[in-house]
Inverse folding.
């Protein structure tokens, strides 16, 4: 069995985590890997209904995602999390629980996010209409030693995708294009 | 990739679900399959902390187990649930969500369970000291069309294990002993 791993995206709302996660998932499936995306919303519906956005509830939600990633990872699946996951301590807890863990920090400034503001959430948050909004009225702790950093403000989506795939190939997490899908990690 | 499936045990507390689940898991791993057991207690810690034993909370808990089983199953894993799962409607919901679903009813009478009563729970429940105790003060709805029925009152553990493995082999869910682990389902 190919060794699974967890690809853990973290970053502010709107930074591009889900979009990148979907592109990576597609690329990895094309290489014959089993991939499962756990995004914030789907998980909140299926695992965390009733939880809010207090620190405690966010931590619980992120730990639950981590638990499911652990089960998938140890069964040979590439588990991709695309939740904001604002607190470093809980991301590090998951890293330690899961073991096979690659953290991707999707960087983007609040200024750029407010300018994009696809869903209008930043305007509302800045106007005080949404509470507990990460990066505005709630903390976001950037990772100190992520395996991969992409910058969605200065990098194009294809470039960010390439940076992630290059890292995963180079470190032996995924087979190179053209390599046999059955080859083994490390 | 071998096709995953969910082996869903249901039955009263103490009927022998977890023990059987562990035996089945061991046998399937020996045949080269990826197996993950979701038992009631572990899931309550990792996915459902804070939930109680009302019908609504039980349903939420069992749906969460079902969701994780679905993710594992569609990635080629044999997911085994060993929670009481007292309500037919929710088991059937999970069956429908998961698709590849084999239900095992572990039968045992309250009389026999009270006689065994390894943890002393039935005595307490019958004395009214534990509320919402399935089969005593809370409903248990037996499955109407389970794929497998084992009777832990009249059958030995090895016989029950054999009945389950025989069914899974016969229906092509698992390779026969001696068959190549890589052979495919159906």
């Amino acid at each position: 069995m190919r060794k699974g791993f967890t690809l853990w995206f973290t970053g502010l709302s709107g930074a591009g985590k889900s979009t990148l996660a979907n592109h990576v998932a597609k690329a990895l499936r094309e290489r014959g890997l089993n991939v499962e995306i756990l995004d914030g919303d789907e998980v909140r519906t299926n695992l965390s209904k009733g939880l809010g956005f207090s620190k405690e509830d966010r931590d619980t939600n992120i730990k639950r995602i981590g638990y499911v990633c652990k089960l998938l990872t140890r069964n040979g699946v590439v588990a991709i999390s695309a939740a904001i996951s604002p607190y470093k301590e809980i991301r590090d807890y998951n890293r330690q629980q899961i073991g096979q863990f690659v953290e991707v920090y999707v960087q983007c400034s609040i200024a750029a996010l407010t300018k994009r503001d696809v869903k209008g959430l930043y305007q509302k948050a800045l106007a005080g209409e949404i509470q507990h909004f990460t990066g505005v009225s709630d903390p976001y702790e950037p990772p100190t030693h992520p395996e991969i950093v992409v910058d969605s403000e200065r990098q194009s989506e294809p470039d960010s995708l390439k940076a992630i795939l290059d890292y995963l190939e180079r470190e032996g997490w995924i087979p190179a294009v053209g390599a046999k899908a059955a080859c083994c990690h490390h």
Notes: Chain A touches chain B at residues 1, 34, 36, 46-47, 49, 60, 63-64, 67-68, 71-72, 74-77 (CB under 8 Å). Residues 181-186 of chain A have pLDDT under 50 and may be disordered. The radius of gyration of chain A is 16 Å.
